Amino acid sequence: MPAGPRKSHGRRSIVATGRPRELMADSAETTGGWTARVITLFPRVFPGVLAASLTGRALETGLWRLETIDLREFGAGRHLNVDDTPAGGGAGMVLRADVLGEAVEHARRDTRHASGSWPTILLSPRGAPFTQRTAVRLSRTQGVTVICGRYEGVDQRVMDQFAIEEISFGDFIMTGGEIAAQALIDATVRLIPRVLGNQMSIESESFTHGLLEHPQYTRPVVWAGRRIPEVLLSGHHGRIERWRRVMAERLTKQRRPDLWRAYCETSGRDPEEDPEQ
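Above: the chain's sequence. Below: its structure in token form.
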């Protein structure tokens, strides 16, 4: 069968509207840049939230590209079946190896020699947890191919054949991988140079240095009887930075003991000690 169609979003290809755009031909203006290819049974849910705000603006201006590949177009038989019952019995359905394998081959058509610079990822609850470190790693590749899982899972032979990496967004189950795919792409795209605009804000975000972010305040100075901490109004940059670091350490110890232990291990600290007063 002919290669399945794809919907490509890039410069001039998408605007932040509630309605999906029609397939647009590639042009010289949309080539290059970090690219996300998404294999999904529901291509019309993309770009979704990715068309909004900074990621949407970066998509329009060609800082990154989004391509959706409709898995149904690779389906088998008259009804374009993409799934079948599990070998050995059991509940639910499993995505077929021949169908998904052909879609992955199509997605890899011009990336076969990219090696680790273009990973193929399955969003799966049994995968490694997605972290800020994962987003940084992916932002430094040429692009990613993301498979949105459905039903009970994917035929393991496809995973083994293409050395597909599994990534999880938490210890819970969703009906499919499309929402998680948009989250993964959003977290990655914002790290691409010039997308965020102010790279300094990335340096102070949660997880960047192994800690949760310190509390943030803005105007008015007094609201509902609550006042912005005086140190933030002092203009003393050294004291402000010290306060922010201590607050970040306290929050991390209280809310994420796992992150606090890892932070202490890398910085030679005792996890039982209290952050500076």
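The chain is about 30% helix and 15% strand.
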